[in-house]
Amino acid sequence: MSLTAPGQHHADDRLDPKSFGQAQSDPTTMSMRSLIDESCKWPCLVFFTTGTAWLVIGSLFALVASIKLHTPRFMSDDAWLTFGRVRPAHLDSVVFGWASLTGIGTSLWLMCRLCRTPLRYPAMLVLAAILWNVGVLVGTIAVLSGHSTGVEWLEFPPYSTFLLFIAFGIVAIWAMVTFGQRQSGHVYVSQWYLFGALFWFPWLYATVQILIIGHLTSGMGQMSVQWWFAHNVLGLWFTPIGLATIYYLVPKVIGRPIYSYYLSILGFWSLALFYSWAGSHHFISGPAPAWLVTASIVGSVMMIIPVSTVAINHHMTVRKHFAVMRFSPTLRFIVFGAMSYTLVSVQGSSMSLHVLNEPTHFSHYTIAHAHLGLYAFFTMTMFGAMYYIVPRLTGREWSSSKLIRIHFWFAAIGIFMYWGFLSLGGLIQGFEMNQASSPLGDLVGKLGYWEGVKTFLGGFKAQNGVVPWLAIVKDTLPWLLSRSIAGTLMTLAHLAFGVLLLLNLTGWGRQRSGPTLFVSDAKGYQQSLTPVADWLVPDEHEGDAS
Amino acid sequence: MNFGPTLFLGAFLTFAFAWMGLVFFPVAQLKNVKPQTADVTAIENPTPYSGLEARGRQVYIANGCVYCHSQQLRGGQYNADLLRGWGSRRSVPQDYVNDDPILLGTMRTGPDLVNIGARQPSDEWHHKHLYSPQAVSPGSNMPPFAFLYEKRKIVGQRSKDALNVTLEPGYELVPTDDAKALVAYLKSMDRTYDVPGLPAN
C-alpha cells in the first residue's frame, strides 16, 4: 500500500522493518551520520550544557518562589529575592534559558540529520549560543535587580533581547541554509515543524518587541499583543520543536515508520492555522472587545483537530511497541511527553470556555496547566532527545542507568504531583473566589464529604455572600506546600540529569560499550523491537524518518 | 517533489492571517479609545498619573506586584468580581489609556487592586501593610516589603514621616522615597467613575 511517489524513499536510511537492520549497517549512511554528528558536536553540546545549567538555576528560583507563597517571610529581607522578582526570574530562565537553548540544540541536530547534510561553520553557532546565554544572564540579573519591563513573559530589557535577536538570527539563517542544502527532495514532517518554528518565532518576538517594548501601543492594545505572544511562544515555538522531536525519535527508537503521512500533514497545517489564534481568551469577560475574545476561543477549541490527529498518529506508531519503553530511556521520556501533549491541549481547549475560564482564570489552576505544557510535554521530550543525541555527539554512553531511572521517576512523579495537587487547589481557590458562598471545608464539615463537595460545585451561589479573602488564602496553603514538595522532587531529577551530562561530557563515569538501557536485558530489548504482524501497520511506510 | 515553496507560503499565510486578527486589528481598534471628561466635574477619566504616582508605578513593576494582583474587574456570569465589593462596574479599555506598560495581571494570590485607592485611602494603612502584611491582615501570604522602609535611630526629634509602629525603644521606622511613591500610586488607583453606556451593577 504505497502512497508515495517512486524515488521519494531513501533506501540508504529506511526505517521500515524490512530494511531496518540493513540501513543501520549501510556504510554510506553510517559515514554520513558520523560526519553530521561530528559537525554538530560543539554547537549542540554548548546549547545542551548551558540549557541544563539554566534548568538547575531556574529550578532553584522556582523553589524559592514556591516556598515564599506558603512561608511569606522566607528570604524576604532582600529586594533581589522578593517573590515578585524571583518568580519572573524563574519563568525567564527556564523559558529563554533551558527550553529555548535545548530546543535550538535539538532543532539544529534534527535539521542536519533530516537534510543529510553536515552543519557548515559550526563555530558561528557556538558564538550564537554564547550570545544567547549572555542575553539570558543579563536579562535575569536585570529582573532580579528591579529593571524588569513589567510585561509578563517579556521582562527582559531591550539590551538583553537585542543579544537574543542576534543569536536567534544566526541560528535561523544556519537552519534555513541547511534546509536549502538538503540532500533529498522529500521533506519529513519533523522538518516542517522545525521550519515553522524557526520562521514564526522571530516574527512573534519582533512584533511584541516593537509594539510593546518600543512603546508603539499602550493600554489594552498592548495586552492583546502580549497574550498573543505569550501563548504563541508555546504554540508556535516550543510545540513544533517538541512535536518534530517526537516525530523523529519515536520511529527511530522502535524501528517502525510513522503510522500515517496524511495525518501528519493535517496535524501540521491545522496547528499552523488554529494555534496562532490563541491568546485573547485570557480576557474572557474582561476589558477587551468581545470579537477578539471569541476569535481566540474558536482557535483554542479548534486545536482539538491538530491535537487528536497527532495523538492518533503517535499512538498508532508506538502501538504494539510500548514494551520498548521498559528498556529505552529516550522512548520512555518521549512517550511521556507525547501523552502529556494530548492531555495539556485538551485541558487547554476546555479552559478557553467561559464556564471553566471565569472561575479558574486567576487561580493556581492556570499555573498548573502551564507547567503541564512546558514541563510534562516539552521538558520531558527534550530530556528524551538529549538521551538520544548526546551519546552520538560525545561518543560515550550514559554512565549510570540508575541515575536515569532516578531522573525519570522523580521528574514524572514530581510533575504529576505538581499538576494534580495544584489543579485541585486551584479549582478550590477559583470556586471559593467566584462561585461558592462558604469555604469547602465548612460545607464538608456541615454536610459531610459527598454533599459538601456537591453543594460547593453546585452552581453560582456567590449571590448569597462571598467567601472571605483570607479564608481562601488559608485553603490554598496546603496545596502550595505540596507544590514545594513536588518542585523539590523535580529539582532533584534535574540534578541527577546534570550529573549524568557532566559524566558524559568529561568521560569520568563508568564507560559502557552498548546503549545504556533501563533494564540490561539485551535479548528482551531485541524482542520488544521485533515487529508485530498487524494489519493496522501499513507494510509500506509513508514519510519515514531518515 | 520540492516542498520548500509550499511550506514557506503556507507558514507565511496562516501566520499572517492570525497576525492581522490578533495584532493589527485590535491595536488599530483600541488606539481609538480615549479618556473621557466628566460633564459636571470636568475631570478627565482616568486622570493622568502625577510624577510621584508614575514613579510609584515603577516601584510596583520593579517588585513584581503584578504576579499576585490583577487590575481588572470582569463581567460575565461565572465570576464574583463585582460581588466582592472591588468595584461597581466591569473594567473597560478606557480605564487603561494612561497605562504603559499595562498591568492587567493574570493571578489573584492577593485581591484585585483596580480600585484599591478608593477602597483603602489611608497612607498609614498602606505603609503598615507593606512593611508587615500579617500585622494588618493576619493569615495573609503576602511577603513583607520591609526593604522599602528604613529603621533609624531617633536622634533628637522623631521624623515627621515616621510610621506609628512600635519598634525597640529609641528607633523609628521611616518609609523610603520608593515606599512613598508606591503608596501614592496605590492611592491613585480609583476607576470608580461612570463610563457612558455601561450600566453600573
Task: Describe this entry's structure for a reader.
- The complex is a heterodimer of chains A (546) and B (201).
- Helices cover 72% and strands 0% of the residues of chain A.
- Chain A is built from 18 helices and no strands.
- Mean pLDDT of chain A is 89; it is low at 1-23 and 532-546.
- Chain B has 6 helices and 4 strands, in the order αββααααββα.
- In chain B, helix 4 crosses helix 6.
- The longest helix of chain B has 27 residues, at 4-30.
- With 201 residues, chain B is mostly helical.
- Classes of the chains: A mainly alpha (546), B mainly alpha (201).
- Chains A and B meet through helix 2, helix 3, helix 6, helix 7 and helix 8 of A and helix 1 of B.
List the helices and strands and how they pair.
The complex is a heterodimer of chains A (546) and B (201).
Chain A: H1 17-25, H2 27-70, H3 83-115, H4 122-144, H5 158-180, H6 189-213, H7 220-254, H8 261-274, H9 290-302, H10 304-318, H11 329-351, H12 354-360, H13 364-394, H14 401-434, H15 440-447, H16 449-457, H17 469-506, H18 522-529
Helix pairs in contact in A: 2-3, 2-4, 2-13, 2-17, 3-4, 3-5, 3-7, 3-13, 4-5, 5-6, 6-7, 6-8, 7-11, 7-13, 8-10, 10-11, 11-13, 11-14, 13-14, 14-17, 15-16
Chain B: H1 4-30, E1 36-37, E2 44-45, H2 51-62, H3 116-119, H4 123-131, H5 133-136, E3 149-153, E4 171-175, H6 177-188
Antiparallel strand pairs in B: 1-2, 3-4
